[in-house]
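[job 4471] stage=fold_predict status=RUNNING
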Amino acid sequence: MSQREPRSQARSSTDHTLAHWLAAEDEGEDAGRLDPDNRLTCHVHGRWIHQCVSSPLHVNPVTRHRWCRACETELPVAVDELARTVTMRCPRCNQGISAATARLLAACRASLSHVSGKARPRLVA
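[job 4471] inference complete, writing structure tokens
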């Protein structure tokens, strides 16, 4: 059973843009032109990555996405859409950032900037 929300139920003014980006990023990823860690959208949730990054589905101890290896714990996420910031820190050691999490943070920040209209990242597809 898929947890992706039907695209027809999207509600924001960026719906058309979101649907376009989802489709283009799916195509780019399938063709090997886009690394999954560089997506601004989430193919599982059908949303901008910053809108669903706090989901447990985005925690992966194997790849270390949102995971502190030293403490063996998930990294909580704080997304501030007004300030356009995203942070992830280990609640135990206050560190925990891996290369995978750093890429996820960069994607979330780019997603936030795109949605806020402050940046127009180039779509790879």
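[job 4471] summary: Residues 1-13 have pLDDT under 50 and may be disordered.
[job 4471] exit 0
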